[in-house]
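Why this split exists: single-chain examples teach little about how molecules sit against one another. For that reason, every record in the complexes split bundles all components of an assembly together and asks for one structure covering all of them. Below is a record exactly as it appears in the raw files.
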Amino acid sequence: MLLPFSCDTLNFKDKLSNPNAATEESASADLLFNSMQLSFANMYNSANRFIAQPMRMEAMTWGVDYNAAFGSTTGNTVWSIAYAQIFPDYDAFLAIAEPAELNAHIGAAKVIKAYTLMLLVDLFGDVPYTEAGGGVSNPSPVADDQSALYDTVKTLLDEAISDLDPANVSRGFPGTDLFYGSGDNRAKWAAAANSLLMKWALNKNDMGVFDAAAANAISSNDGDFDFHYGTNRNNPNARHPQYNSQYETSDGVYMSNFYMWNMRGSNGGAEVGTDKDSKDPRIRYYFYRQTDTALGEDQFTIDCPFRPRPTHYAARDPFCLATNIPAGVDPTGNADGAEGYWGRDHGDADGIPPDGQLRTVYGVYPAGGLFDGDTFKNTKKSGTLGGLGQGIWPVMDNYNVHFMMAERALKGGDVAGGRAHMEAGIRASITKVMDFADAVDEADVDPAFVPSSGDIDTYVNEVLANYDAATDPMDVVMKEFHIALWGNAMDAWDAYKRTGYPSGLQPTREPSDAIPFPHMFLYPSIYVDLNQNASQRSFGEMTFWDPGKSLK
Amino acid sequence: MRKSLLLSLALLFAASMAFAQDRTVSGKVTSSDDGSGVPGVNVVVKGTTTGAVTDIDGNYKLTVPADGGTLIFSFIGLQTQEVEIGSRSVIDVAMASDAEQLSEVVVTALGISREKASLGYAVTTVGNDALTKKPEGDVGRILRGKVAGVNITSTSGLAGSGTNILIRGYSSITGNNQPLFVVDGIPFNTSTSSDRGFSSGGATASSRFLDLDPNNIENISILKGLSATVLYGEQGRNGVVLVTTKNGKGSSNKKMEISVTQANFASQIASLPDVQSKYGNGWQNFASAAFSNWGAPFDQPGKNGTNVLSTDPNIASIKHPYDRSALYDVFPEKRGAEYYYIPYNNYGTVFGTGIVNQTSVQVSNNINPETSVNFGYSYLRDQGFIDTNVLAKHNFNLGAKTKLANGLTATSSFNYITSDRDTPAAAPIYSSNPISGSSLFSNVMYTPRSISLAQLEFENPITHESLYYRSNNGMQHPLWTKKYVNDNEKISRFFGSINLNYEITDYFNISYNLGIDTYTQKKEYQVNKGGPQDMDGRLETSVRNNFISNQTLNFNFNFDLTSDLNLNAIVGTSLRNDHNNYTWAQGTKQFIFGLMTQQNFANHNGFSAIDDQSWLGAYANLSFGYKDFLYLNLSGRNDWVSNLEKGNNSLFYPSVSASWLPLESFAISNDMVNHLKVRVGYGTSAGFGDTYNTRNVLDTNPKAFVSADGTEVQTNAVSDKFGNKDLKPEIHKELEAGLEGRFFNDILGIDFSWYNKNSEELIIDLQLDPSTGFTTSTLNTASMNNTGIEVAANLTAYQNNDWNIAIGANFTKNVSEITKLADGIDQMPIAGFSFLGNYAIPGRPYGVIWGSRILRTDAGDPIISTAGTYQQDPENGVIGDPNPDFLLNGNLTVSYKWLELRAQIDYTAGGYIWGSTASTLTGRGILEETGFDRFVPVVTTGVVQTGTESDGTPIYAPNDQQITANRHYWEHTGVFYDENRIYDASVVRLREVSLSITAPKAWIENSPFGNVSLTISGQNMWYNAFNFPETSNFDPEVLSLGVGNGRGFDYVTGPTSKRYGATLNLTF
């Protein structure tokens, strides 16, 4: 009987492997390590995005209070990247890299893994680890005790430092290092590992570990542990996520009115409640204003000048500082002299008016956008402006190390040491920001608006005077740390939990004292919903190391 | 079909043994309907085995005893007649059709015709008369409401959009639940393919049964249960739709026939809200360029932000929306201009009346009794209610049949289809701009009352950029979308088969069928630059080549084992291969506006994939018939498939069914009960799942990143999907029982079925907690049950020579329950988003809707915040069940002589839908019912916490905080909480109504026409979804998640349409 095509059709055994994909056996350690680095950046971005909101670094707009703003889907992306991308890629990587003695790769991979695990514990407390990664053989891994996981973080960092020891053999170095560039960067990775260990030790309140690690930590801006984005716009889009969201077509996030007010100084005394008279030298690098006025805008486009000041706000709390509508025109007087720093107050979850070409956006640092030279451009120009997105995520930097040393000194009662490290931290931060802008977009850095060394000294001296006058100088350190950590909300959040400072953060616009600050976040819905052994927590729970300061 | 099959059956059984006879009688058998000759009528001398069969023209001739006797004329489907011969030598007989017997022979699996009485399972046949002369070119939609147990839903009212068909519920949790289509013995690809997911506008994709031409369909048989479909193996598990075309069937009763059908219809939007005309664009009763319509009242010019420029106190106005610095050079005349703040009519600007034309010519010729051909062509141009939405389709068909002297019969059927479809962008929306991509509907439906789509220029005349009333251009003008965004699809399809049937003896034949179905589907999603949804422009091009080859070889036996026991047996094998390949390219950043070529785009990326799957089946079917009142069917099939690992890739599934005719068995005959049949069946089937799920792959990206120094970065990554080597086939087991009867002199007919289907080891794409290291895998862990009843009833209410009044009804109820997902998994998303979608949850029906809820006390009262508003429950939960409680469809036929009125009314009871259209229009202050006095504040019903008991229990008191009406409607009735967007989708509908005029014979007997008829018909002319906000007038028959397993979501992806017009049919 005639049976055409039968031979091809009956060739069943060749139809099992997916002809559209490569096989696992063809994996390469270098390329798995690349994947880990990119996944890390994505995870960092996602975490920073939501932690920046309770930390008043970006405006909290997802809800009027913490409960409404941070539901169980908040942590899904971080969870998914950590567990389904970074950890399995690490395991596959290690299986190839260990026999090949790629110790430089291995040390760097362990730093990434340690950071990831520590972030998971800080965000969620007890999380799966020993039972994780089993695929369908264990669909519901049980969570490990968080303090044991913190120990694992330390072990990983210790191992990383050892793997990165130049005394060890490393048969090759990563072909792509998106943190430090090509070459033998083992010393820099080791310093980064030690610096992360310092944060670990501060959280754990383990000064022995801190002091040992501090001796080998990052000691210059040259050693800053930053993820570096590129400028490629399409196929793939390799630019800083905040550049993508604010310099293409979309409106992007709202900046925090509080954070901008905090850096604006008192404006020659016109502004009530600010800690400093002098304007922060970094403000034109952090923020780019698309307009210098909200005069003539209606209530719909910007409603806060038309709203009564919340009655639960203290006298020093800023409210609605986006505009410079003169008194008399501004019915409430809320917005005098704000120079166009157009953001939102804490917990302003109103609908979105047509203000995308008016609101303040990320500047040149760290997103690779525009330096604010009073140019007031519309930034939605399809990715053609400023540093073209060649930004960074400042994961662990020299300034960060100095601030941690300052915190450590004050814990030990060393007020002078705290003062010196704080100053070093501020200066390292300012230098970093200014150098960065010159590196990625010198053309747009208008010298007329670049702070002089005198401006910087004025600023630093005012901070030091505040330090000297403070009842608790830790508050001043933390205020400066908060500002320096632009782009690193995670460390600001940990420091806030550790110390209870900075004080005076803007309250939510609606009264919400009954709803606790997120010391931890709700477990991700993809964990609680899909894992039989998981159950949801409530806001207000704390990690094992959290001293339980009263936060708001 | 029916007649020609019977012809061969009659030839097989008509004994022609000759005894000594005296004389010859001849005559002609004609149809009492139209006077044409009827071939194949069995003519037997009563009490003898002497007989003959009428020829192609209806003539017969036979010898009869000299003393005469009685002739019995019989033909299935016609009323049997007994005629005294007497002394006549010419006896002409006109035979009338027999309503009772029309359904007696049905097409079953593998195209085998069987007497319905012998079947132990439910089969429903839909004839040609119910398929043609409809304002619809989509066979799936024509079948809506016509068959018990079948639930058919259109995805939208856009011309050519897809249709979801579900038979006896969903039985696979994440797999395919659409039935198998078999056309003239060939498995026919009916997939709904889209390059974009539903979230970026993929829900409007067409389903490939759109390629069938209803005019060329002879009939459709729907096999519902597993007892009926077991011979198709796993592919028949969701039911089988057997389509028999007219190809190769010859002319029904004449030598040659030409049939011409011309149809012209109008297509209009059916689902439009009534709007209020008291308030305009704005927020908090203040005129502004908001998305919403909570602005100033129209009747208070000069207040609430109006008349900022104007001094005319009589009419409200605002600053012209295009009076903005960026447009000073473009529209200098708008600078300082004002714009009337008055209600405008916008729906009429976008939604019009589309014209649907269909022309069909079918020719058939019976060249001689052994050979017949037919061929045809039809053209459909279907323009929807948006003028840029057009489907143009050409169908060519050719069939031939010839019987050779040696007993070999060859039949062929060839079809070629080419179509071209343009569809406007219809991405889904929550409440404002589309979730991703462009949507024509989103920005039209909730257009603020004081914005005129027609008056506001939609593009910058120099750059062609979209302009609209929001100064930041954050909204795409709908008319820009309509003109500059298009979704095009071109189909080129061939399907055909050759069937050889070799009759070895009168009780044994061998048949072989070779079929091919192949099509190329080319899609282009064209977005010009300048629209805010896709500022740089985009061109997505894809090509799919789909190829199915199928062969079956059957050995058919039919003999009497004893005088009482008949055996009908089939032993066969089939081999099917599906091969698909897919290529996709995307260009972004358009260079020259308006030019849609890939080289006109600056950036490109691409994707390609192939898919190859084969099935080898061997099967047998034994049908025993005892004395024509007891029948037993035994079937079994073993499948071997290419997509599972060895050891798991073969499965045998049996079925058994029986039917019993009690009246015949006890030889009872009375007028009250004319026919009774009891049937019971048990069938099994499998599901082998999709390809390439058993082995892990490595994710690779040749250009994952480009570092600042320009270095391209490649990556390898462990795939997020876990390859499951142990994957096995899923198992479906169904028990069904039924009762069929006709009563009261055949006035009332009832067909009742009950079934209980257990589906086990179901293959699910399980979303995993990422802490397992993977986000998905494919597993055999789930199980579910479907239980249901189907009732079809028909009543001949009144009948005489001129009048016929018939009422039919069918009832469908299916209850599903997920019984298990996987150890440790108590819920999984199966369609939509994970935070808002259809879920499978053990103990619940399939696909319950999961979404955000309002925070409530244990007593169920909403907890109001100190701001006076609801709060969100941090946990999402089940907010509705989208499955209807039941479907009840009724039809009425009233005919008087040459006039016939038909109507079909469909009722869907229950089932919930998450409705973006209704909730958005309410929350944004558009609906007529939001035209109340908005200056009066509102207190939301609920409780506020006033303190805490010593044990920590909160103390609540009724809420007394006032908020504005705007805020209440926006947050509490509108779009904030999914719970508030759930509506009971019960709907009653006048699905079809038609009036046909068939020219009486007397009028046309001297004309060349054999038949002339004119049908005026309408579809979806009225409906009422009575649980929706009254003025929303919303029609819930939409599926914004597209064809598949999602149900109960309206994302404003295309409202339904109504169609009406006329069809003229002429036969020569």
